[in-house]
Design brief:
21% strand; 8 helices; seven-stranded mixed beta sheet; binds 3,4-dihydroxybenzoic acid; 7 strands; globular; binds magnesium ion; alpha/beta
Length: 212
């Protein structure tokens, strides 16, 4: 998108409050890679969760908690609203916990430290939405787990559908690029899902589970 139009949309629709701005600004100083979602992507996630009246959301990959704050804010307060977010890196998890506390969302968020593939089998199904934003190689497995854990009518959301262009770079045979391509193929072709890609930032897969 044209840069001026991009700024126009961000400022009008996705302006950050000081809490979100501080969490995002902390990433470089904390040594986190600059791979968090953008404000427009956060607002899109927020709108989608409100649209399905989500109360329970699962996130794979908390990073510094920036996306988690957008997600958790879309949910009703406890005891109904609950974001479950999984993070493998203890340093990231500590920063995410701090972010949720600062945003006043500590009681609305359950952060589970561990590898997603170890944690996923311990979760009960019925989530209103799953946001996948973790390591890319296991994406086909994350797809299957997400489908298992989502309720019918729930949203499957996945960051990095484009993977900086690697999705269409046939020379890139890296496990991460292959994982992204495999996830996209599954999301596009699985009869249990209707899905598309919204070209926000690095591409967001948006799907609705329509069958078991
Ligand atoms: C990268 C970007 C992401 O948004 C992510 O979730 C993981 C990795 C990357 O640029 O490598
Ligand atoms: Mg991402």
């Amino acid at each position: 998108m044209d840069e001026r139009l991009q700024s126009y949309v961000t400022e009008l629709f996705a302006a950050e409050d000081p809490i979100l701005a501080a969490i995002r600004a902390r990433h470089p100083a904390a040594g986190l890679p600059p791979i968090h979602i953008s404000p427009e992507e956060g607002k899109l996630l927020y709108v989608l969760l409100v649209a399905v009246e989500a109360t329970t959301v699962l996130e794979l990959g908390s990073l510094g908690g920036y996306s988690g704050v957008w997600l958790a804010r879309a949910l009703p307060p406890p005891p109904h609203g609950r974001l479950t977010t999984i993070e493998q890196d203890p340093r990231h998890a500590a920063l995410a916990r701090q972010a949720f506390a600062e945003a006043g969302l500590g009681s609305r968020v359950r952060l589970i430290e561990g590898a997603a593939l170890d944690v996923l089998p311990t979760l009960s199904p019925g989530f209103d939405a799953v946001f996948v934003d973790a390591d890319k190689e296991p994406l086909p497995q994350y797809f299957e787990w997400s489908m298992r854990l989502l309720r019918r009518g729930g949203l499957l959301l996945c960051d990095n559908a484009f993977f900086h262009g690697a999705a269409v770079d046939e020379q890139d045979r890296s496990p991460a690029a292959e994982g992204v391509r495999a996830f996209n193929r599954l999301a596009a072709g699985d009869p249990r899902l209707v899905a598309t890609v919204v070209p926000v930032r690095d591409g967001l897969v948006v799907g609705v589970k329509v069958g078991e």
